[in-house]
Design goal:
alpha+beta, 4 domains, four-stranded antiparallel β-sheet, 32% helix
């Protein structure tokens, strides 16, 4: 996990004379560290323990729990006891702070993850502090409502039960629920243990996105179950916003002659954003007779999407009699004369 290595093996109590698989894997990792001359943190190594913390969770298979036929995974007991003590002391107060409350709720949520059926204990506590109003430069004093204080007290009392028993057997009964604004339903079926285990591992996922009805639509649906929203005519359907025709460039070369690539590379070398070289030898789609290409160039010009440009319209692009113009060689053929304005 990130830069920590954990290995846990399940071993029968009667096989205590055999070396656990986890210990063999630990020794293999230690040899790899030694071979590569990597300095580890031997003072942090935990070997052969029946109770240890693994990535924020405490795995407890100690003798007392084994005697009860249990093995638990939970938030560390010391952390839960500290949260319980602070919560009970705070519940006696009439005031609290936003930062204190958020820290407490965050700690309790982590503990409740190991006993998810207890999640409904937190209700009013979630909306007690608005994150948008929380300031980082200092705590804000808030009146502690009795509803929130009661939730904190319940969490403190039930904190010893916030654990998952890893020895619990998989039920062969699977359930499915559904509800409406009138009633709810629940069904059950018996399946093989393998199927139940697969559903347990993968079934806790949110469903697909469904757009809920607004109040008016829900009322119409109640009055007429067969009601459906009428489809809009084609001429009334709002068209999606088209993507912009261009990007934003510092430099753009248009028919730049023999030096176009070198010029673009030189400008790019200074960290500028360089657009594509608009020239026929780069792509057949860069034909200046094309209204799409010219519209795109005009779009860049009108929107101020480029700062510097390189122009050199050569005779090979417009193979007619030409005139000289500063920065370009331009012909006066009918359909290309307007490009001179650009």
């Amino acid at each position: 996990m990130i830069d920590d290595f954990y290995t846990v093996s399940v071993q029968s109590v009667g096989d205590s004379h055999e070396e656990p698989t986890s210990h063999s894997q630990f020794l293999q990792a230690s040899r790899a560290y030694a071979d590569q001359k990597i300095m580890g943190s031997k003072e942090k190594d935990v070997v052969g323990a029946d109770k240890a913390k693994i990535t924020g969770a405490e795995l407890d298979t100690s003798g007392a729990l084994r005697g009860l036929g249990m093995a638990t995974l939970a938030s560390p007991a010391a952390k839960r006891m500290a949260l319980a003590h602070v919560s009970l002391e705070l519940a006696k107060m009439r005031w609290t702070t936003d930062q204190m409350h958020l820290c407490l709720v965050g700690g309790w949520v982590h503990s409740l993850l190991f006993r998810r059926p207890m999640m409904p204990l937190l209700d009013s506590s979630f909306g007690f502090v608005v994150n948008d109003e929380k300031r980082g430069d200092g705590p804000k004093l808030l009146p502690l409502t009795r509803t929130v204080a009661q939730e904190l007290g319940l969490l403190a009392v039930l904190s010893p039960l916030m654990a998952t028993d890893l020895t619990a057997q998989m039920s062969s009964t699977v359930y499915a629920t559904d509800s409406s604004d009138k009633k709810g339903a629940i069904v059950a079926a018996e399946v093989d243990e393998e199927v139940a285990r697969a559903l347990w591992r993968s079934g806790r996922k949110n469903g697909g996105y469904i757009r809920l009805l607004n109040r008016s639509q829900a009322l119409l649906k109640k009055l007429d179950p067969s009601f459906e929203e009428p489809a809009l005519p084609d001429d009334e359907i709002e068209l999606a916003v088209e993507r912009p025709m261009a990007f934003r460039f510092h430099f753009l070369a248009v028919c730049g002659g023999v030096g176009k690539v070198a010029a673009a590379a030189a400008v790019s070398g200074h960290g500028w954003n360089v657009g594509p070289v608009i020239d026929l030898d780069r792509s057949a789609f860069y034909e200046l007779h094309s209204i799409g290409v010219i519209s795109w160039v005009f779009h860049l010009l009108e929107k101020g999407f480029w700062i510097l440009s390189w122009w050199s319209l050569l005779a090979r692009h417009f193979p007619q009699h030409s005139i000289r113009h500063p920065g370009a060689t331009m012909c006066l053929e009918g359909m290309t004369l307007w490009i001179l304005i650009l």
